[in-house]
Each structure stands twice: as structure tokens, then as C-alpha cells.
Amino acid sequence: MPTLKQLRYLVALAEHLHFRRAAETCCVSQPTLSGQIKELEDRLGLKLVNRDSGKVTLTPMGKEISRHAENVLDSVHGIVDLAKKQKTRMDETICFGAPPTLGPYILPYILPKFQETSAALKFQMRELYPEMILQNLHDGHLDLALHPLPVKNTRIECVGLFREPLLMVASPHHAISKANHAVHQDLKGEKVLSLDNDPYLYDPIRDLCAKTDAILSLEYKDTSLDTLRHMVGMNMGVSFFPAMYVRSEIHNDDRVIVRSFDSKPLYRSIGLAWRRRSKRRDKYLSIAESIRLTMKERVPEVTVLH
Prior knowledge:
Order of helices and strands: HHHEEHEHEHEEEHEHEHEEHE
Structural class: alpha/beta
Number of helices: 10
Distance between the termini: 45 Å
Radius of gyration: 22 Å
């Protein structure tokens, strides 16, 4: 019989149509995933994947079996959810994930509200980058997570929470300090610092640089927002930071200045995600609404999504 691991690898390959990316989302090496797919084909006596050309495709039977595999994996996670719910009963624990570029700056607002409105719930918090969040949701290591939109995963349900501006940050010695707002022309020829471990931050910055003839620099791509802020303060380039990070970390920092665009601002949209068909769906929808209300009341920089 096929193993659940083999079915999970097949579903990941069907989603990404790329062995390396599928292996990364499953947290295994590419040879491991490829070998397990081959063993699955041998066990079933069927060819599931076309490897003849540079592009990976699934055979018609491979597509059909991957759809059945999704249902099997959903059912298994349903069993886990049911067992977890029975075990914890009223003293319920929710494993809650958030990206490191968001979690530390939003949790101080929403956790007290959770404790106020859902006293029976206990939250275990984990910081993970977006791609790892989706895989941990699917594998059952997370129950619920904040995740940038859109979520392109048929096994995950996600509802919109809010839209957060990305604000331009520069040194006080930069020419932009003399203006109240930034315009796209200000970026021409500018060196823009960015991370690349969070595509939902990196992608809009990369696209903006391409449109404005700015120079995208990844010298500090594997660091943190704090490191980028210090580099910007040393006038080594400009960057863009989420509004909640600015509110939390830059509000009283006189080593940098913050400017918003007067038109066509950058932003990222954030949602709340969980496994599709979860037995806790109604509870998660209630938590989503609680987050929206909290953000509307306490963080005026963001726009709540309905």
C-alpha cells in the first residue's frame, strides 16, 4: 500500500510541478522526494509523473490519484483534529503561527483580546516564514496562522483580515527628508535594501524597483528588519518596512525617517489560514472577526478587509 508520506509528496509535486520546490515545502531533499515518488509508481504499477522534458507534468492518472490523495490526507488530518479536540475538551490549545516580519508587531494587540474573549483557549505561538507556515498547517503542526494573501493552496482555507502599507524608510541625511511624502521619481537610481526570505515583502519591492529604475540590493537579504533599519540609518540605502514594524520599532528612532507615497502606495494583505474542512472552522472565523475589530480600533495605519 502507498504510505501517507508518499501521498503527501505526490500532492506537493502536483501543486508545484517542480521537484525542488515540492521537496522544500515537504522539508526533505529533492532526491528523497523523487525516490519516494518513484517507489509510489512502482507500488501502483503506474506512471504518475512525466520526466521526459524539462517541465514536470503529471500523467492523467497521476492527476486523478493526486486528487484522491488530497482527500485521504484531509481525512487523516480530520482524525487528528477530532482526537485533539476530544483530548483537550474545554482546555483547548491552538498552535498559532505568524511570519517573523509580522508576529512580534501584531501579537501584542491581538493576544490580550483572545484572552479576554476566549478564556478557555490556550495559544502556542510559533514564528515561521510563509512557505513553512503553509506546510506546517498542512502537516498538522500548526492549527491556525497569520499569512500574507493570496494563499495559493487548495488544502488551506484563508479569510482576509487587513491590508498593511509598506512605508519608505531613509536616513535623516537623505534628500527625501526635506519632503513630506515620497513619489516614484524619488527612487530613480536609488539603492533599495530588501530581504528575500519573505516573498510577500520582497516581491512588491522588487516590482517597484523595476518600475522606477531603482537598484535592488540583496546584500543583507538573509538578515532581519532590524538589521536593514540600522543599514538605512547609516545612509547605505533606503528600504520599505511594514507599517506595524514602523509603529513598534521606528516611532522613536531618530536615526531614520519614514515617508509614505502620495500615490500608488505599496502594501501587503494579511489573512488568517487553517486546514480546509477543519472542525474548528466556526471558531476560527470568530477569531478572524476579533482580529479585524482589534486592528480597526487600535492600529489606524491598516485597512480592515471584510
